[in-house]
């Protein structure tokens, strides 16, 4: 059971990293390559990342909580991270806030999964 939890955390960390890479690297590439600009601005990309991140994170944290009670702070950080990703994908409250919100959400999710993996390894 520990191995599957480790794989879930690793997958969630990788997805958060991909989301972060998308938010930080693609705008730079978009400035150089017009074709990449079309893909970087596609709304379906943001929706896809959220659609993948939400169930993976939810399942990983649910399993971790079931195995060893997670502190409220860890659950809150993951929930806030997911909400920031969702808000960023929806362009709320503004298009200008999309990237900072998504970056903060990705970092919160990734740090929660890293912390959980560290905690599980320690025990």
UniProtKB/TrEMBL annotation:
Pfam families: MerC. The chain crosses the membrane at residues 12-32, 44-62, 74-93, 99-118. It comes from the Bacteria. This is CHASE2 domain-containing sensor protein. Keywords: Membrane, Transmembrane, Transmembrane helix. One of its GO terms (molecular function) is mercury ion transmembrane transporter activity. GO terms for cellular component: membrane. InterPro entries: Mercury-R_MerC.
């Amino acid at each position: 059971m520990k191995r599957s939890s480790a794989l879930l955390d690793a997958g969630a960390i990788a997805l958060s990293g991909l989301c972060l890479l998308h938010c930080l690297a693609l705008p730079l590439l978009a400035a150089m390559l017009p074709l990449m600009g079309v893909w970087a601005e596609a709304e379906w990309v943001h929706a896809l990342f959220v659609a993948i991140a939400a169930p993976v994170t939810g399942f990983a944290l649910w399993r971790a909580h079931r195995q060893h009670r997670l502190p409220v702070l860890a659950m809150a950080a993951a929930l806030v991270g997911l909400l920031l990703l969702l808000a960023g994908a929806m362009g709320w409250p503004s298009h200008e806030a999309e990237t900072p919100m998504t970056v903060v959400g990705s970092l919160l999710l990734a740090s929660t999964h890293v912390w959980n993996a560290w905690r599980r390894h320690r025990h």
